[in-house]
Amino acid sequence: MEALEETLFEEFDNYSYGIDYYSTESNSEEKAHLGVVHCISLALCCLAFVLGIPGNAIVIWFTGFKWKKTVSTMWFLNLAIADFIFLLFLPLYISYVAMNFHWPFGLWLCKVNSFIAQLNMFASVFFLTVISLDRYVHLIYPVLSHQHRTLRNSLIVVVLIWLLAFLMGGPTLYFRDIVVFNNHIICYNNFHEHDSDLILLRHHVLTWMKVIIGYLLPLLTMSICYVSLVLKMKKRSTLMTSKHFWTILAVVVAFLICWTPYHLFSIWELIIHHNVYFQQVLKAGIPLSTGLAFLNSCLNPILYVLISKKFQARFRASVAEILKYTLWEVSCSGTVSEQLRNSETKNLCLLETVVS
């Protein structure tokens, strides 16, 4: 085991944050600095969980069960489902960081937890890309949109997006592993145990695949859609005053702000070699950017409420309907109970009369 640990540490010098974090080269001042950064990361993750679970649950409830099924509600429903599933597993990561990167939950939860995080990232960005394309086609080519923008077609797209997200997150299930290092169990990417060249190759391929397919291509697509919308419809006041347009744009911008640092540090991790200062920046930057990325999962419901007047109106109407139904049930229950009590009293009086 000691030989394995030494091999892992040598081969994963800049390619495994978890193992590199336990390097004995870090002094007490550096560890104190990292401790502050990790506290900030934990605060971001806890905030994402506390706000995201009820927020996304409300979006799922209304878009999935209360509101009329439309293409738009289909997109936002699945976006909320992706965030909600991820947030359910977030306490595992919070515990991992809180216990100084010690993973006591076993191998399969190590694999599943990392897979869910990747699934959420890819599913979210794919749905945001489809939402942008859908808005572009709907406004620029209304006839084409009317012909093909149906619930059936949107359901097919939803299934394809989830399949693609599962496929992109699949390597995590295969490579994620645990190892004991410095009395800690580390959950990390085990690309290979001995071949350093293969380790670097697999790490580069998976990182660039994640950056290109999960970030750059969607970013380029969304940018082209929104720039084209603004340029082609700048003379129409409908676009600039459309709350739906600004809501979608805000959701996309929030995704980019939250996930850009994560991808930048992922690339930086590939190119840093034997530079102690940059390694310390990387140690601090990766958990901080990860916490910021996870925070994105709670922002979408907040943006819907703050920006979308349509969402606010539907939300208020739905809540009013639920309250009205609840009060009606309570009222009916009280009336029935009163009727039963009156009936029992009347029967008791009749019984007393008969007896006497």
Automatic annotation (TrEMBL):
Residues 55-304 form the G-protein coupled receptors family 1 profile domain. The chain crosses the membrane at residues 35-62, 74-94, 114-133, 154-174, 212-233, 245-265, 285-307. It is a multi-pass membrane protein. It comes from the Eukaryota. The gene is CMKLR2. Keywords: Cell membrane, Disulfide bond, G-protein coupled receptor, Glycoprotein, Membrane, Receptor, Transducer, Transmembrane, Transmembrane helix. This is Chemerin-like receptor 2. CDD domains: 7tmA_GPR1. The keyword Disulfide bond applies.
